[in-house]
Design a protein that fits this description.
The chain is built from 4 helices and 8 strands; from the N terminus they run H-E-E-E-E-E-H-E-E-H-H-E. It is an alpha+beta fold and 204 residues long. The protein has a domain of 127 residues: HIT family, subunit A. The protein has a 6-stranded antiparallel β-sheet with strand order 6-7-5-4-3-8, covered by helices on one side. A two-stranded antiparallel ribbon has the order 1-2. It is globular, with a radius of gyration of 19 Å. Bound molecules: zinc ion. Zinc ion binds next to loops.
Length: 204
């Protein structure tokens, strides 16, 4: 096994070759209401804040029609009795994983045992991902505005690409073209195998 996230020079070469003049196309999120900027008279400026509205219901609110409670959840790479780690579709960052409770719970619903376990798995998974070659940092996030079932994001930020620092890594994940599938799959298997040395079972 040769788990090795891509080095910065390969990501850079792939990205600048993918669009004319090295510029990649706009991602979908620039059309979202929540995207904060727009071009007015040729200048990029913040949008005028929209008027208050009722909150839209989240997917799976109250456990109804929750796609994370389905019998078959795609992309699972590791599980124990209470938690699972899954990958999303291949994207611009070298690896994006989600940690979710099996049971329909949101973050404030966790009892002290589950809260402790969330902390331990978060530390294990962050350490394992940050030790992959060419991964500089793993950003851990919980937003939860879309789905009521807890899903904690783990976003691996590559070493040596200054545009990708901080919160902007989440945007570049949608902007950059995905890397090689074989490298990604090897890295997923490595992370699952190492996590299983702490607890649970690798599923890939
Ligand atoms: Zn659920």
């Amino acid at each position: 096994m040769r788990a090795m996230a891509e080095p910065a020079d390969q990501i850079h070469a792939r990205a600048v070759a993918a669009g004319p003049g090295g510029r990649l196309p706009n991602p979908d999120f620039v059309t979202w209401e929540s995207f904060p900027f727009e071009v007015v008279d040729g200048a990029l400026v913040p949008k005028v804040l929209a008027a208050p509205t009722d909150e839209a219901p989240r997917k799976g609110e109250g456990g109804q029609d929750c796609f994370l409670c389905a019998d078959e959840v795609p992309g699972v790479i590791w599980t124990n009795e209470r938690w699972r780690v899954k990958h999303l579709e291949r994207s611009g960052l070298p690896m994006v994983l989600m940690l979710e409770p099996i049971e329909h719970l949101d973050l404030p619903d966790l009892d002290d045992d589950l809260a402790g376990e969330l902390g331990r798995i978060t530390v294990w998974l962050s350490r394992i991902m940050e030790r992959l070659p060419n991964v500089e940092r793993v950003h851990v996030n919980r937003w939860g505005d879309g789905s009521a079932h807890l899903h904690v994001w783990f976003l691996a930020r590559p070493t040596g690409l200054p545009n990708l620092r901080g919160t902007f890594a989440t945007l570049w994940d949608d902007i950059l073209p995905p890397g090689p599938e074989d490298v990604w799959r090897e890295d997923l298997a490595t992370v699952a195998r190492k996590l299983a040395t702490h607890d649970g079972r690798a599923q890939v």
